[in-house]
Amino acid sequence: MIIMAQEMHKQLIKQIEAALEQDVRFNPSQSRLRICANDRGIVLAGEVDNIAEKRLAANLSRTLAGDEVDVEDRLCVATEQVADAELAQHICRQLGAEPVFARTAISRVGPGGVEPWQQPPDSEGNIDVIVEDGVVTLSGVTGSLSHRRLAEVLCWWIPGCRRVDNRLAVAPDQPDSDNLLTDAIRIVLDKDPLVDAGQVRLGSAAGIVELDGLLPCDEARRMVVRDTWAVPGVWDVVNRLQTGPSPTA
Fold first, then answer.
1. d(CA 57, CA 62)
2. What percent of the chain lies above the pLDDT cut of 70?
3. Has this prediction a pTM greater than 0.90?
4. What is the CA radius of gyration of the chain?
5. Exposure letters 21-36 (e unless 16+ CB within 10 A, then b)
6. d(CA 70, CA 43)
7. What is the pLDDT of residue 10?
8. Does 94 have pLDDT greater than 80?
9. What is the 3-state secondary structure (H, E, C) of the chain?
10. Which positions fall inside the BON domain (predicted)?
């Protein structure tokens, strides 16, 4: 049985590698992706260029693996090097400045223990931030799936964040849906100062998000796609965004 499982994992790894090579959004020549097998299934490790490649690799691997093989995503995203203590400080500051977390207790957990960053007297929920080698772990409780998703995206926006392990629980429990995912993406686009969210139309079905609209330049188009991929729960992005002058300009 063990030999059969090992052979199955080897074949699965070959299928994943072949599928990624066929996807024009993934650059295998620049990727430092490593796929290996363990007792439970396969592990994605190494480094890719951006959040889109990370999500693509993980989601495609899970699609091919099905329900019988576990896929562990340890992929990191290439970024500038920032000291862990500095990165944790930036993340706590970013979370604390976000209005939806104004009543959330925020703490930094480091080698010296727990360091409270924001402790409102009438706190609702809590977020603990741990940073190790650029990998950010969020734990605690937040009030909605949208807030859970937003907390992760805010981490991805900070230079030096290589990976986010989002362990935030939602209380009370909230079933997910395409409408909630679409709402979360809209919230993220609205909060990005580099994006004109009013120019973007979007919808989702089974986690596949369609983007449409007219944006002023390629950089704005790239930022919208990046923000969309950064939202946890997005399975794929169909990019129909166009660039050019506004008809009313």
1. 9
2. 96
3. yes
4. 19
5. eeeeebeeeebebebe
6. 8
7. 86
8. yes
9. CHHHHHHHHHHHHHHHHHHHHHCCCCCCCCCEEEEEECCCEEEEEEEECCHHHHHHHHHHHHHHHCCCCEEEECCEECCCCCCHHHHHHHHHHHHHHCHHHCCCEEEEEECCEEEEEECCCCCCCEEEEEEECCEEEEEEEECCHHHHHHHHHHHHCCCCCCEEEEEEEECCCCCCCHHHHHHHHHHHHHHCCCCCHHHEEEEEECCEEEEEEEECCHHHHHHHHHHHHHCCCCCEEEEEEEECCCCCC
10. 177-245
**Domains in the chain, please, with CATH?**
2-77 (3.30.70), 84-170 (no CATH), 178-243 (3.30.1340.30)
Q: What tokens appear for 91 in the block? A: 């993340």
CA 36 to chain centre: 22
Span 180-209, average pLDDT = 94
Which tokens sit at 42? Answer: 């396969």
Distances in Å between the alpha carbon of 142 and those of 97, 106, 154? 16, 11, 15
Q: What's the CA gap between 33 and 23, in Å, rounded?
A: 15
Q: Nearest CA to 100 among 205, 233, 190, 221?
A: 190
Residues 6+ apart with CB under 8 A from 31: 46, 47, 48, 49, 53
How many residues appear in the chain?
Answer: 249
Mean pLDDT of 24-28: 82
